[in-house]
Amino acid sequence: MIVVSEAFKSWLIGCIGLRLLLVWGLFHVFESKKNGNPQAVALLFDGKDFGTLKCAPDGSSIAYSSDVVAECDLGEFGAEKIFPLESDEAFSSVVGEALNSVSLILSSVEDSVAGVLLRFGNSECLSFINLGDELFVYKEIPSEIIKCEGLEFLKLS
């Protein structure tokens, strides 16, 4: 069943027209090695509170939280650490840009809201998508993933 919370929709729509200021990623770190995919990504738009995107407990949906990401010591299993992502290749072209539109990414295979697509004023895009209980960030979702997952885009703005 395809469901997205009103709080998530409200936050997304409320960010339209605002500049993206900060991006933080929460990564699992074990023996000084950072996992390639973030556990969560926190976005700060001008004049708004942080919004955090992560995988939902169902393993196929995207989840939203108004809580800021926090580091966690996992003892012998490593730690969850926060890293700034503004200079990361996926984010560097959109930090400082205004958000123009938002689309939900619907998966017909999983029957879920698998992610969100953000389109910025400089025509750059950023997609956050839950694939197999891992959060992926793309500037452009590969066509084979769109086809295999049966992805459709529902514009909110």
TrEMBL record:
Transmembrane segments annotated in the record for this chain: 12-30
Which keywords, in A-to-Z order, does the entry hold?
A: Membrane, Transmembrane, Transmembrane helix
Q: What is this protein called?
A: CdiI
Species name for this entry?
Answer: Pseudomonas aeruginosa
Gene name, Swiss-Prot/TrEMBL:
cdiI1
